[in-house]
């Protein structure tokens, strides 16, 4: 079968969007609003499609992204999105052709890593991606939580105020960048993101439902936290049974974060709170007088990371303690049987992350260079992607057979260097 895989043009966009919707098992025909949104959102020079007799049967796009790393810096990543292959054309190498080209171009640009949100877990390990962050969602029974609305106000001299979404669009971007400087794993939010999530740029023909927006102001009057949530309107036997669903909650300080949670848990008529995607070590549920009132309803991987430039990636972050480590990274040049275990992937290890690297690291930063010194650890690129942000344990992965200790105790030394006091967190789907 002659399949044409190529960069799409403006004329291809309706066909491409239709293929994406088909692959995502959505009603196929896009509306005018979605097409207009896609035109504004996408860099067509980084969008690919596979065409069979003129019909688009697979989609793929990437864009430049910034991701915060431990220590407050950010690195440039090649973010992968909108991957689909129609059910009629699976297992014909279409994803391999598109992603291999895109990752090669990203490495040539000098991107330190690639990122994606995996809709299905088994697909992306063979391309060198590893799960780097997890998210947990809780449902809180407000009545059982023990929160007393009479004492739920900010205890730091600050205040909580409702704002309109137009104000949120003005206040949010600068605040979010301050949060990214103190919380690693967060990806940047573009102007298109803020307009889409505040109703200024509709994504499709569905009616916009305005959420509630709240900010926390410090005692000095500086906005240092925001909360966005919706609430349903459900009553039974003349009693409220309303669920608040958190769409966004970010804060520069733990005090602001606690104040926003306690505010939401004290809103009249709210009997249940769905937290949205939070880090597994979120302040909830333990800020509640009764933590058992918070029930886990979801726990899963979210952001996946694929190293491209290992020295640049490892130099970008800081480390909890001082020390050195020699990493022998294997990286398939293309898809292989598996990159989730040591030695997995195509033989030759000729991908962009392949090599042996000496990391000299500490709280003030790090150097990382290629070396011929004997390795302390051998690991696939995908596993380094899981370890980089500090949320995974090399000791645990060694026990799973995904990291090989070449020197006794090397995995423990890697954990001492790489693990972070707070788990990395990313809540944005892209």
UniProtKB/TrEMBL annotation:
Biological processes, Gene Ontology terms: aminoglycoside antibiotic catabolic process
Protein name: GNAT family N-acetyltransferase
GO MF term set: aminoglycoside N-acetyltransferase activity
Region (Disordered), start-end ranges: 330-354
Catalytic residues in the record: 124 (proton donor), 430 (proton acceptor)
Protein origin, superkingdom: Bacteria
Subunit structure and binding partners: Homohexamer; trimer of dimers.
Domain N-acetyltransferase: 3-154
Keyword hit for Glycosyltransferase: no
Species of the source: Streptosporangium nondiastaticum
Family, similarity comment: Belongs to the acetyltransferase Eis family.
Binding site for acetyl-CoA: 83-85, 91-96
Swiss-Prot/TrEMBL keywords: Acyltransferase, Transferase
Pfam family, one: SCP2_2
